[in-house]
């Protein structure tokens, strides 16, 4: 396909959808936001006929508020958006040979005997082994179905991170705020580094599944230690075990390492998770340490 790409973004009001809009605007790319609900196939077709995209970026889906526990008690809504809706969009795109990038999740894996902490990561062809939360269950189902669509790239996003330490959805903000945190190494996605790669992947018309995380793992304590080193030398925190954590959440959460050979082969310059955190989060925040510290203290109410 030749000519300038035209992007249609689903998820305008969402975190990742909003960031994708900012990014495309910054790049001077042609794009529009969709207005359709994913369950409404005819509205999707109207959006597509209006914008005539070459590429759809699907960052729409139910993630639950205040967190994924919401999906445990709203199962039909979750199926309609995350499975039926997502497949509707993929199908409409396939019929028109439009490439779709789907911002999915890597929270469909959990360390197991073949993938223990410190062992090999889960590769793109591995079948999900974590369906402990209803959210993850629907995401695993849809990933498995989407991989048959020749026009779809599924990105496995994990524990997304942005620069702002007071943005409530930022994984770092969450663990700074919690009274107690578990301490487990995990793969994570530093959005300011990786979202631009996703646009490039769409332009390259990559398909199939992509583990969309920075190489390597970082643990909760390592992140909080970085926060202490770069921003607040007085910062203290308490740990608790997975068993203790289970008492304060409804559905279990996944912890894992995703293998990153595929993304590294496309983007050899990708930074390790720890280097990316330093470059995109801690160094920029350290340059305005006083303001950041005041804002975080106000957010934590102490
Ligand atoms: N944030 C995370 O921690 C995280 C981690 C891993 C993966 N992901 C995945 O990345 C994707 C985007 O996440 P996000 O954090 O940006 O989500 P978000 O902030 O919750 O935004 C979700 C977006 O989807 C839209 N939406 C929900 N149901 C819809 C439907 N039925 N039809 C059309 N639009 C619908 C919402 O619009 P309305 O507000 O109008 O409903 C909103 O714009 C999701 O697939 C999520 O699973 C997120």
UniProtKB/TrEMBL annotation:
A biological-process GO annotation: S-adenosylmethionine biosynthetic process
GO MF terms held by the record: methionine adenosyltransferase regulator activity
GO cellular component: a single term: methionine adenosyltransferase complex
RmlD-like substrate binding domain: residues covered: 8-176
One Pfam family in the UniProt entry: RmlD_sub_bind
InterPro entries the record matches: dTDP_dehydrorham_reduct, NAD(P)-bd_dom_sf, RmlD-like-bd
Membrane-traversing stretches: none
Gene3D superfamilies in UniProt: NAD(P)-binding Rossmann-like Domain (3.40.50.720)
Protein name per the record: RmlD-like substrate binding domain-containing protein
Species of origin: Chlamydomonas eustigma
């Amino acid at each position: 396909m030749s000519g300038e790409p035209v992007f249609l973004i689903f998820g305008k009001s969402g975190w990742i959808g909003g960031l994708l809009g900012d990014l495309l605007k910054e790049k001077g790319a042609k794009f529009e936001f969709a207005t359709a609900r994913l369950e409404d196939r005819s509205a999707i077709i109207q959006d597509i006929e209006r914008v005539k995209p070459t590429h759809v970026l699907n960052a729409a889906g139910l993630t639950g508020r205040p967190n994924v526990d919401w999906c445990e008690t709203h199962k039909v809504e979750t199926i309609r958006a995350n499975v039926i809706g997502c497949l509707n969009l993929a199908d409409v795109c396939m019929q028109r040979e439009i490439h779709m990038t789907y911002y999915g999740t890597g929270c469909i894996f959990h360390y197991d005997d073949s993938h223990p902490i410190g062992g090999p990561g889960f590769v793109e062809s591995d079948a999900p082994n974590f369906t402990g939360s209803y959210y993850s269950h629907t995401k695993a189902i849809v990933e498995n179905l989407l991989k048959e669509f020749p026009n779809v790239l599924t990105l496995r996003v994990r524990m997304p991170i942005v620069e702002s330490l007071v943005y409530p959805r930022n994984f770092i903000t969450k663990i700074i705020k919690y009274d107690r945190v578990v301490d487990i190494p995990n793969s994570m996605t530093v959005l300011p580094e990786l979202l631009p790669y996703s646009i490039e992947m769409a332009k390259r018309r990559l398909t199939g599944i992509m583990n969309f995380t920075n190489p390597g793992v970082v643990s909760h304590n390592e992140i909080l230690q970085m926060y202490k080193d770069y921003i607040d030398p007085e910062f203290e925190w308490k740990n608790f075990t997975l068993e203790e954590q289970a008492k304060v959440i409804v559905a279990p959460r996944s912890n894992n390492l995703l293998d990153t050979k595929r993304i590294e082969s496309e983007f050899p310059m990708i930074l390790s998770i720890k280097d990316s955190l330093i470059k995109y989060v801690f160094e920029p925040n350290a340059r305005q340490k006083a303001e950041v510290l005041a804002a975080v203290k106000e957010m934590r109410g102490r």
